[in-house]
Amino acid sequence: MAAERSKKRKRDQDDAIAKIKKGKESKKTAAKKKKKKGGSDDGSDYEDMMDMYKKAKPLPGQRGSCELCSKAFTVTPYSKAGLDGGLLCTPCGKEIAKEVKATEKSNKPAVRRGRRKIESNRLDGFNFRGTKTLQQLCIEKLANHADDIDEFGDMPEPIMKRLSEIFSKKRATNSTTLKLFLQPDMRSFAVHEAAYLQTEDYNQIFAVIPNLKKLALRNCCQFKDVNIEYMIEKAKSIEAIQLLGANLVSNDKWIDLFVARGKDLKALKLEWLDAAFDDQAVEALTTFCPNLERLKLERCKLLGVDSVDAIARLENLKHLTLRFNVEIPRERIINLVRTIGCNLRTLCLENFLDNASDPTDELLDLIHTCCRHLQKLRFTENNECSDEGYVNLFKGWANPPLRYIDLNTTRDIDNGNPDGPEDFPIGLASEGFKALMAHSGRQLEYLDIASCRHISLDAFADTFDGKKQYPNLQEINLSFCPVVDTVIVAGIFRSCPKIKKVVTFGCFQVKDVVVPKGIVLIGAPRAHDALEQFGEVVMEFQKELRREMEKDMERITGRVVPVMS
Amino acid sequence: MSETTPSEYVTLVSNDGYEFKILRSAACIAGAIKKALDPLSGFRENAQSRVDLPTINGVILEKVCEYLYYNQKHVESKEVPDMDIPPELCLELLIAADYLDC
Question: Domain DNA repair protein rhp7 treble clef, which positions (chain A) (predicted)?
Fold first, then answer.
């Protein structure tokens, strides 16, 4: 109350001051006019003149007539002035005030909030140069106006997919916007951020799309038993299911699903399940889904050793990704790889440690002898297998060169001796790394050896000497490999013609690298200006490539290429 | 290479008869137009330097041309400000962009 009163007092005071000022001004102008004495016919003087003939404004307490609606009303200190200087009645005054506020808002300069976004894009490795595509621009605009759209109509499927992805990214997928994306003739449907969807919305998906084959829902917190029931009833041809965080589905319902749709199921990916989905469910999965080709179980809290044994019975499996929360005895994993390893295209084993028994390289040896068709191998967070094990894995491996290798965080952990045992290196070290590149170098597209601390400078220098070529390598992560220096990074630029992204967090020897055009270097801690550096310089070795490309282009298109200095 | 030297400007024609004369280099940013004007293919489009776009109306095509020049202008620059697109044109423009491949 007191605050309000003081506010009111202040306002009164302000009004009074304003009135006084106004009075002074009018006196001044009057004085000026007298000086000028008529001799002008310009508008302002004329207006001033007119002002003099105007009726004086009524004072508070008096009756006046509104400038807009011409109704009579009692003037108060709160009465607003109209556009032509007259006073307004209370309702009209409120209207005007609203309008004024609205225009003020729209006139405010747009706050630059793109900075964070730009940084995030940079760290994601988007190499920005030039404009976005027109499609991208339209899609972004659409996502911003998601609430105003009623229907998309007939859109090409890739565009729909892209739209859905962008909606998810902006967390704009909710009950209303979901309907925009549902079309009866779809075969696959994905919502990558489904946190705002309700239980009924999920049913909607199956109701609208009868021939759904592939379903992917991430963060589908409200996906419940009833949805599974409805899916069993409606989605008769479902083949691939991916659900992240579907914690409200009970164990029994998972089993029901496998019983009902198991025969057709080709792919199943489940992540972040805490409350249900235990070994029994996996048992049912392996019994009723014999044709499963793709299985991913990550961070499912209740899964243990029995699940590993059950998965070993899935003979048709081609892609397997596992990450468990509990320790699995080594012999169970070995048994798993021995029985199904020969068919696998993808093998991802993350954080499989067995601290109970003595470290051995048995698993790596087994991969060497069993696997013949691997294209992607991920074997991470391990301090048991030795460098020798990795050498034996890659040396003379009958498996064709791999496309994707991730061996990050395979190193010795001993704070007292950070370099690890010298004569017997643990984890992927120099020799293992050389063997890896010798085996897979020519096909390798992605390599992650972050935190493989025991790889020596010589091994890097030898591998990336600028002469040996790795024609397909696009992305490499060398973070926390302490020996990596400027020369190595420069060598990578020369040895890998297709390289796009080099990640070097925690590589303190990397300083002031000249990054060639089209490549992004992320995370060099000693870089003076920025965490990420975009290549601007066209290097000698690039020039030749470029000349050839330009020749090709001219020959093909005859297009006038805009040349900028 | 074709024998006749390609003209500097080309004409894009919308389905309601509007004609836009724009730089050939800008027009070729759109994949579909680039293919239509490819001298090796020997389409009439290249000989006449004129591309009919019967699925796109004048309003949208104007916006497309604006984009093509915007793209050409910023081809080398970093952190380009987004072009302003009226929301009511978005869907049609998106379909046109998909068709033109730009």
Answer: 60-97
Cβ under 8 Å to A: B residues 55-94: 64, 67, 70-72, 74-80, 82-83, 85, 87, 90-91, 93-94
A118 interface with B at CB cutoff 8 Å:
yes
Tell me which residue of A319, A315, A318, A349 sits closest to A332, measured CA to CA.
Answer: A349
Q: For the domain that residue B88 is a member of, what is the CATH number?
A: 3.30.710.10
Nearest residue, CB atoms, B74 vs list A130, A140, A561: A130
Q: Which residues of chain A have pLDDT under 50?
A: 31-41, 43, 111, 553-565
Q: Is residue B1 part of a domain?
A: no
pLDDT at B31: 93
Query: How high is the pLDDT of residue A179?
Result: 86
Angle at which helix A225-234 crosses helix A199-208, to 10 degrees, equals 0
Q: Is A244 on the interface with B (CB under 8 A)?
A: no
Per-residue model confidence (pLDDT) at position A100: 79
Q: Where are the domains of chain A?
A: 456-565
State the residue for tokens 């709160």.
A78
Binary contact (B94, A534; C-beta < 8 A): no
Q: Which has the closest alpha carbon to A318: A274, A374, A278?
A: A374
Distance CA A263, CA A260 (A): 8
How many domains is chain B partitioned into structurally? 1
Residue A537 per-residue DSSP state? B
